[in-house]
Amino acid sequence: MPVSYCIVPVSPLRARPAHDSEMVSQLVFGEACIAVGPAENGFVKVTCIHDGYQGYCTENQLMASKDEPEHESLHAVAAEWSNTVYTAAGVPMQVPMGALFPKAFEGHFYVDDDFLHPFYEWNEENIRKISKMYLNTPYLWGGRTVFGVDCSGFVQMVMRFFNKELPRDASHQETIGDEIGTEDIQCGDFAFFVLAGKVVHVGLLFDRDTIIHAYGKVRIDRFDQEGIVNSDTGVRTHSLHSIRRIKSKN
Length: 250
Fold this sequence. Notes:
single chain; mainly beta; SH3 type barrels; endopeptidase fold (from Nostoc punctiforme); 2 domains; five-stranded antiparallel sheet; 21 strands
C-alpha cells in the first residue's frame, strides 16, 4: 500500500473522521502511515507504521509517497526542543523533538545540516538529559510532543532517541521487556501502574526513589515499592503494578 508522511509539526489522530472527535494519538513531522480506508469528510483512516496505532488523520496534513517507508533504517532524530524546517518555497516551520526527515521529503522540505542528531547511547546521563527536556510539558490525552504529552506518549518518544520504538498505550508497553524487582532498578527502567486491575499509567525510573512521568504535566516524583508519591503534596497518586526493563537497540 502507498505510504504517506506527516508534513505538519504535529497532526491529531482522531477516533472518528471529525475535528470534534477524541484525539487518540498524534503523528509527528516525518512519521509514516498507511491509509486503510477511503477519504471521508476530509479525513483518512491510517495505520501508523512506527507503532501500528490507527485513527483518522486530516488528509491535507499528509504527503503521499511512492517510496517504501524507512522508519526501520533511520539513524537520526530531531533533538532540540524546537527545530526549523523550510518548505520548498523557503517558508520556515518549527517542528518538535522527535521529528524525522525521511528521504521522501527531499525536494519538498529543507533542513540545516545539524537538524538531525544521531541516536543517543543508552546511559544514565543521556536518559536523564532527554527525559528532562520534557519537564513541565502539559498533560494532553493522545499527545506525543513537548507541546503536550500523555504518559505513554512521553516514554514512547523518549525511547525514540535511543532507537527503540514502543507500542502506543501503557497496557501494551507493559507486555514487552523483562520484569524486574525493585531491588534491581536501574536508570531507564519502566514502572507501570494499575487502577481497577488495569494498567493505566507508565513512567521512567531514574533510580529506586525517583520517577519522571506525565501526570498533570511531566514531573519528577518520589517512587517506592507501592507506587508514586507526589513530591509537592505527599499524596500517593499511583499504585505499582510492575517494573520492566526495555533495552534500546544500541
